[in-house]
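Predict fold of Molybdopterin-dependent oxidoreductase; 449 aa.
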Amino acid sequence: MPEKPGAQRGRDGGGSAPGSIGSWLRAHPPPGPFRPDFWRSPLRGPWLTSVFGLVLLAGIPIIAITGLLSYAAYNPWLPGNDTTPERGLLGFYFFDWPTWPAWLYRVMQGAHVILGLTLIPVLLAKLWSVIPKLFTWPPARSVADAIERASLLLLVGGAVFEFATGVLNIQLFYTVFPFSFYPAHLYGAWIFIAAFAVHVAVKLPRMVRALRSRSLRGELRTGLDGTRPEPPDPGGLVATRPAEPSVSRRGLLGFVGGGSLLIFGLSVGQTLDGPLRRTALLSPHGRVYGPGPNDFQVNKSAAAMGVDPAGAGPGWRLELAGTHLTRLSRADLLALPLYTYALPIACVEGWSTQQTWTGVRLADLARLAGMVPGLAEVYVESLERGGAFSEASLSARQVADPRSLLALRVNGADLSFDHGYPARIIVPNAPGVHNTKWVRRLSFRPPTG
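Predicted 3D structure, encoded as tokens:
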């Protein structure tokens, strides 16, 4: 019997009549990866893709949340802090960043960076497992299909952009960007998060069914001889003409998992003090600290930031502005009550270290300027010449915390020039760039929020 037209349309999946442009396109795909038989790996299939997807589903929300909180930690609504002035509604979640616990930013940013690095092999494996979907021909068979393909491109493009720019920033290669890292990473993050949420909502039921289709324990017990392609799937992940396997799924999962563990081991030490710092081979920062009190990480040297040694010499004076203007020498500051606290300093690149700082409380300096601690923010200005963070603001909560210091010494010795001599800011739970070095002026004023 002759086939009914509806049956033909059902197999096409596009619903176009025989002889239409859609039918012709499907029958004449371009050469290479657009042809279904180009992809011949016997390992690809819904189950393997879902395993990688499950790992990413557990890790990416943690990366996203810690990343967004990291941006909030800059208190970007305060003068001098806003690295993304045109963020619009993207800053709806901002709140007055706390000073307690002192280690929170250190742990949060370390988790953001290290987990991001650790998931790179899984992300690459996931992209490999679904790459035939990126070359589906024709590109869209219906409006719904076009929307799904567009969301897939946003998902893949967003993931690649966020991970790539993040890695380059960790390696201090952000100077190669033709754009500012902070707004680009923030905008890219929201695009990726939106695409990721839509993708999960659409694919989660399918992923659950695929994971239930076979046993992970069984696959981990199956060697190369027992490796067989997954059953054909309507999504087109399973090869139509699979080649003989050269590695088992167990081997592939072990390779990806081993790569993630290796990257974790070569990066986690940058957030920890002690022997593990020596293992942070993927970090461009100091892995081995000397015995001296100032022998710890310096991200930006005084010379690199254009700080004139003469300006930090004996003639240096700290200006305190509030209800009146006061000028203090370093000797004047040393004559004030000094306090010592062990506080971490942590950077957006993921490295952190805890040192012991001695200095004058910001709250006491606010009083000297005629302001009431808890009712005064401070605008900090540095001797730096034009650096991105040569000026920054601290909130009233940060000023009032008794552990917030204008540090003059570290580990019992005077600050070195590269660590901010003659004076620098140290605030608990603040991003490292807001612990301003080479301070020249503190302007206290009522809260702006």
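The longest strand covers residues 352-361.
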